[in-house]
Amino acid sequence: MARKITFQQAINEAIDQEMGRDESVIVMGEDVVGGSGAEGEMDAWGGVLGVTKGLWGKYGDRIMDTPISEAGYVGAAVGAATAGLRPVCELMFIDFMGVCFDQIYNQAAKFRYMFGGKAETPIVIRTMFGAGFRAAAQHSQCLYPMFTAVPGLKVVIPSTPYDVKGLLIQAIRDNDPVIFCEHKVLYTVEGDVPEESYTIPFGEANIVKEGDDVTIVAVGRMVQQSLEAAVALGKDGISCEVVDLRTTSPLDEDTILESVENTGRLVVVDEATPRCSIATDISALVAQKAFGELKAPIEMVTAPHTPVPFSGTLEDSYVPSPEKIVSAVKNVSEYTK
Amino acid sequence: MATTLSVEDLLDAYRTMKTIREFEDRVHVEFAKGGIPGFVHLYAGEEASATGVGMHLKDSDKLASNHRGHGHCIAKGVEVNGMMAEIYGKKTGTCHGKGGSMHIADLDTGMMGANGIVGGGPPLACGAALAAKMKGTDGIAVVFCGDGASNQGTTFEAMNLATVWKLPVIFVFENNGYAEATASKFSVACKDIADRAVGFGMPGEIVDGHDFFAVHEAFGRAAERARAGDGPSLIEHKLDRFFGHFEGDNQNYRPKDEVKRLREEVCCLKRFSAEVTQQHGVSQDQLTEIDNEVASMIDAAVVFAETSPDPDAADLTTDVYIKY
Asked: Do residue A120 and residue B122 have CB atoms under 8 angstroms apart?
């Protein structure tokens, strides 16, 4: 039965249900329990924002605090995955990929191919991303395009509490390495989530709103921003179709292309910086495969090519807003050759 | 040195060491002829290290290797035809020609892979050890690092993690004196790599890596400790490589005639042969018989590799994912 819970409760429930179902599922990360070796309480934090709180009480040693050594423990999770466990490994912020990337893109991602199809590395790396917390340049980035570019990795970017639960359960059961990107601003968003376990397949985009005039493609928090824009545009008589990619690898090309065939206009909304981003990737795809369907040039709404600023005034203008999306949609709607 | 090993064990050890030497000497020759593509790093000179360790490992134990991995593979039981074909990039190779010398892996025998990244292996070995610990087996993991990898942050992180989680993992540092063309005397800040064990709360030991018996005994202690749940150990094997960093290395950073002298003075095979024939009841005939067997086996492996087909064009895009 569905009831309203938050995005972060949905993550906790997904991990809880999978740990209960399969004892090879383990969790590790910095302060995912909190309190290990200290004299106060155990499960003191349950993750820096409390996402894994309560799991230690149920599963004990299967959820482990780690030293602040991302290369060490992410690599250990990769090794454990090749040896029969299914680690759900938390990289607290996606920004920390810089200190452990080798273990992800040179090791986990390549084992199956390099070893002639014989390795299985069922690891999930959960990681927080995105601006909006005044967390500044090293704790706010959208680095999922870098992971998306790596063959051998799957990249998931959920946008709702319902999706995050189903996609995370799928990720844990998936036999390939999965980078699971959670936008920190979404953690407190509530939505209907069934109590029972369910999966959402990878590579199937979700049309969250149907429309005829303009296709908006978005991921993560940008789906909500796009929906807000779509509502405003509806009042002006512009009907938008909003496509939530859900996963950037694999990518559901068909849904994007079918939508653009119908609308003839495309706006891609991506919180990542503009170069070599999901926005450029989707734009290239449509330009290559649906050029003849386009009635206007593609618009991309992205962050600027800058680090994420600290000041609230600057950060708010850094993130693509519904207003910027409205403006981009109007540009493509009003375009005449 | 006294030994508890039977004559049969000693002959097995000799067979493994000889196989590695013959394999590497032959790859050296074939590479020079132009038959082998890519980057190849040879293990000749270090055979006692892999062999003394490998004899303590079961198939269920895991071994993470490095770019100089052929010897580790052979000592872990990877079959030489598949290895040779892999080095030639053939479809019949251990990894169907998609890995090459630096990525030979055979998960069925617990060989987690050679590794093209210096310091790539230590965290992975910790993970394999964690899996054994969580499953409640007495399995262990070993990672071979060079003096170069002893300076990598991943290695430090892995050693710290191994003690924090009390993992059944053994860090074997094969210090052959050179990280590529840079001397370990220059690049390793402490006197011995084994000194670093103290900083990570584990025992550390220095072993003469040319001495099979010393290697075998020291690793036996570490393995016993790991299997008993007493945590990780570090062992530093002081040894020498008889070829360059990679094939094609002119080795002008080494003193003239260093390799020639080492081959005469510290060859682990010569030393082992003398010791077992003089002290442990092995006859020269038995060793000669193994020499002949191994020579034929390596000849056959080269023929197998040379006559094997290349991968199919369609193999380019397979095995990236299990399902995509």
From this structure: no
